[in-house]
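Section 5: illustrative case.
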């Protein structure tokens, strides 16, 4: 499985794109501003979108993408783009985006019986089969209903935390699955730890506690940091390096922690 990082920033700035990952060219995990760097043919090839939650930085490109590819998908006789999400996320999109005020309701365009968009609900703990991929919906702890994902690849699972704070259910699955790589958010530096806590995001001091849940006797895997705020990225990575040089448990080696970058491509 090929994972193309379209966006992995916690906000926009020059060179920064918000969260979106393209799997094998046809499945999109979140639809942040990074989707806009795809060409029309690439966007038209996306048949499924899986959303972690309803926040704008994770859904901003969805309505614009549908508009951009509408004529191509209709001409090619393709069915609707299927958007998979929690019921609460779908309700938010229907009420606040696809409401014929902010954006047209593509769930009934061009026709109600042949729309460009179809919503598909899922639940935490469910394993989906999407475009031949096995995707498990994992818990997340955020200010709105949210999830993470575990996607089975040839070399193990691609694990994505989504937006979350302390999340024991997520680590339980990390320790049960063969993990190829872990992508985890750390939105704020420790100097903004109170903002992180209030908004239910991770800061480095909490990330340190969370990584201690990993059963290092089973396997080691690279850990990629995502969703950093552009103004905070350098400080966040410095704080992460600092704590990881001093393992909390005697005998533990430092983790293999890396910074995720838009444009990265991984074979998983």
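Designed sequence:
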């Amino acid at each position: 499985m090929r994972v193309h990082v379209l966006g992995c920033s916690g906000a926009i700035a020059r060179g920064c794109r918000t969260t979106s990952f393209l799997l094998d060219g046809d499945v999109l995990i979140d639809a942040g501003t990074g989707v806009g760097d795809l060409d029309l043919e690439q966007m038209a090839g996306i048949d499924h979108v899986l959303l972690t939650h309803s926040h704008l930085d994770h859904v901003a490109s969805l309505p614009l993408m549908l508009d951009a590819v509408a004529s191509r998908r209709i001409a090619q006789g393709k069915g609707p783009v299927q958007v998979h999400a929690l019921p609460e996320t779908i309700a938010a999109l229907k009420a606040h985006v696809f409401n014929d005020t902010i954006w047209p309701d593509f769930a009934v365009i061009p026709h109600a019986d042949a729309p460009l968009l179809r919503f598909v609900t899922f639940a935490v703990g469910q394993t989906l089969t999407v475009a031949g991929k096995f995707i498990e919906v994992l818990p997340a702890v955020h200010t709105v209903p949210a999830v993470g994902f575990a996607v089975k690849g040839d070399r193990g699972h691609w694990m994505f935390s989504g937006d979350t704070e302390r999340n024991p259910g997520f680590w339980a699955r990390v320790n049960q699955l063969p993990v190829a790589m872990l992508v985890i958010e750390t939105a704020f530096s420790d100097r903004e730890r109170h903002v992180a806590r209030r908004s239910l995001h991770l800061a480095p001091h909490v990330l340190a506690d969370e990584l201690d849940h990993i059963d290092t006797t089973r396997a080691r895997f690279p850990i990629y940091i995502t969703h950093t705020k552009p103004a905070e990225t350098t400080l966040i990575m410095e704080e992460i390096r600092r704590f990881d040089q001093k393992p909390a448990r005697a005998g533990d080696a430092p983790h293999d922690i890396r910074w995720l970058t838009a444009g990265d491509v991984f074979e998983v």
